[in-house]
Design brief:
Elements (H helix, E strand, L loop, with lengths): L2 H20 L2 H17 L10 H26 L4 H18 L4 H12 L2 H12 L4 H8 L3 H21 L3
Helix pairs in contact: 1-2, 1-3, 2-3, 3-7, 6-7, 6-8, 7-8
GO molecular function, one term: DNA binding
Organism: Holtiella tumoricola
Family: Belongs to the sigma-70 factor family. ECF subfamily.
């Protein structure tokens, strides 16, 4: 299978994952493109005996995590400029809010999902949103299958409590 066929076959699914992770269309576009660039560069290292999409998802999740690490370092570096950090957070919140779906219930679910840390949010997105098995999600997140199950359970419990507070 050539690269164009792989992209065509997985682009919608990957883009949906990027939107789940980033919550902002512009950032999701960047993550989507960066993921494909890295995947194409590393295509020779792909183990053809395994499914392609989990391998591609792992690249996307790693790109996302790397970006978060860089962002945290940047915030620490700029901590002597608290006004700039506050402004960055405000603009990020505004862009996230502008991308949420207009239905009120879905907004509440999305907001509750955002409140979860990556530790719980990523396993939930991969297993529920991307319909991956616990084993596949564990391979992508580099944790064992049992831990994925545990984190998905904990994430669902936390989401339930957050949504109950919102009256849903």
């Amino acid at each position: 299978m050539d690269v164009e066929q792989l992209i065509d076959m997985h682009k919608d699914q990957l883009y949906r994952l990027c939107l789940y992770l980033e919550k902002n269309q512009d950032k999701a576009d960047d993550l989507f493109q960066d993921t494909w660039v890295k995947a194409i560069e590393r295509l020779a290292t792909y183990d053809k005996t395994k499914a392609f999409y989990p391998w591609l998802t792992q690249i996307a999740v790693n790109n996302y995590r790397d970006k978060l690490r860089r962002l945290k370092l940047e915030i620490k570096r700029r901590c002597y400029e608290p006004e700039a950090v506050i402004q960055d957070r405000k603009s990020e919140e505004e862009s996230i809010e502008s991308q949420l779906v207009h239905k009120e219930e879905l907004q509440c679910v999305q907001q509750a999902l955002q409140r979860l840390g990556d530790k719980h949010r990523l396993p939930l997105i991969l297993t529920m949103g991307e319909r991956m098995s616990y084993k596949e999600a564990g391979e992508i997140l580099d944790i064992n299958e049992g831990l994925v199950k545990s984190r998905v359970y904990e994430a669902r419990q936390k989401l339930k409590k957050l949504l109950e507070k919102e009256g849903l």
